[in-house]
Amino acid sequence: MRTVTVALGERSYDVLIGSGLLAAVGERTRDAAGGRSAVVITDSNVAPLYAPAVAASLAGAGYVAHVATFPAGEPHKTLATVADLFDQVFALPTPPERTTVVVALGGGVAGDIAGFLAATLLRGVPFVQVPTSLLAMVDSSVGGKTGVDHAAGKNLIGAFHQPRGVFIDTDTLATLPPVEMASGLAECIKHGIIRDASLLAWIEQHAPALAAGDRDALGELIARNVAIKAAVVAADEREGGVRAHLNYGHTIGHAIEAVAGLRGGADTGDYLRHGHCVALGMVAAGRIAVARGLLGESDARRVESILAAVNLPVRLAGLNGAELLGIMRRDKKVLAGAIRFVLPDRALGRAAVFADVSDAEILDAIACLS
Ligand code: NAD
Ligand code: GLY
User: Fold this and answer.
1) 147 φ, ψ (degrees, to nearest 5)
2) For ligand 2, is residue 143 a contact (CB within 6 Å)?
3) Which ligand is the nearest neighbour of the Cα of 104?
4) What is the CATH number of domain 178-368?
5) What distance separates the 2 farthest-apart alpha carbons in the chain?
6) Ligand 2 atom 1 nearest Cα
7) CATH topology of domain 2-175
8) At what angle do helices 215-235 and 197-211 cross, to 10 degrees?
């Protein structure tokens, strides 16, 4: 098992990464969060796969454990879902107390929803993350950003609330659909672009193994990415500085997600995934960087070929630049009216924030996606 510590003073916590960890969630939760009751929050896909094992582990560690579920998928990451989960939690035979531990089991949607519920239930209860998608393992379960989407845009409602522990059982990836695996790889490629060119080269080299779900490669990938995310969060928990670099590809990506993701088929699961939108956002941001002389054309093309090698989109027809710009103006990342862009800073592996990217540059970059 590998351990990465997120160093946040008295709110520090460990991220445990290994095979078979689901069976130890109860014991680990007791060590990290204490309490006597626990509520597992999970989605309709993950519940039948892993909730029984997690609930049994919690019960084995002495918890009175319950499971509350919501319909899977980004279109359900809403306040209405949180309200329904509150109804379920308050109707439980064991009413929640301030020491009740929320256990977020599933992908980033479950983690963001459960974390937000934990941040607001009785004005805040402890929670732990048990991520089961690659994206949640390498990114969303670490760092304490929680929340839900609004019709006006992605993640516009939320709170910072750090988990007490993150327990990553890599065995759960065996059931993750390939499209979700690719979505998670987008955030790993992002980490390479903004922080670690050697990770990018490693992903490039291991793309076939990663796309095929090779266990050893995935274990190393998760550990390297958690270490990057933990270091960034430890340096800047509330996104006053360097944490903003994690938003690379997300400015245009979130806008694409708002039109092609959130509005997509909530019931059919036919919507563009978060990582796929981020991949497109990274391609567009790369184009802005090339036009500004911040990135060589060959580096931009190299990133596109790495994205394509792990089955991520690098083009999307039918995007409306003006519509995306309107959405970007409502994004959390807007400061004093300026859309703030993270761009590579003269090389892959380094990034900086730019507040002077013009509408024309953004529209040109979006046009490159067609
Ligand atoms: P998701 O939670 O919707 O999971 C993807 C799909 O995979 C879902 O259908 C889910 O039911 C299924 N699934 C998950 N684990 C599975 C498993 N082991 N086996 C079978 N199916 C499984 O989406 P995601 O890609 O995990 O996360 C995306 C979300 O994360 C977005 O809402 C994004 O905004 C958020 N996010 C948050 C942060 C943060 O810091 N809080 C960072 C990055 C992304
Ligand atoms: N995924 C962006 C962040 O955690 O800050």
Assistant:
1) 155, -175
2) yes
3) 1
4) 1.20.1090.10
5) 62
6) 246
7) Rossmann fold (3.40.50)
8) 150
**In the block, which residue shows the tokens 């998928």?**
73
**Torsion (CA) 103, 107, 113, 118 in degrees, nearest 10:** 20
Which of 43, 77, 109, 157 should be mutated for ligand 1, with most atoms under 8 A from CB?
109
Query: 281 C-alpha to center of ligand 1: Å?
Result: 18
CA of 227 to the centre of ligand 2 (A): 14
Q: List pLDDT tens digits, range 87-125.
A: 999 999 989 999 999 999 999 999 999 999 999 999 999
Would you kindly state where each structural domain of the chain is located, as residue ranges?
2-175, 178-368
- Tell me how far the alpha carbon of residue 278 lies from the centroid of ligand 1, in angstroms: 13
How is 17-37 classified by DSSP, letter by letter?
A: EETTGGGGHHHHHHHHH--SE
Q: What is the pTM of this model?
A: 0.96
Per-residue exposure over 152-177, b if at least 16 CB sit within 10 Å of its own CB, e if not: ebbbbbbeebbbbbbbbbbbbbeebe
Q: How far is CA 335 from CA 5, 121, 330, in A?
A: 31, 30, 10
Is 362 in contact with 328 (CB distance < 8 Å)?
Answer: yes
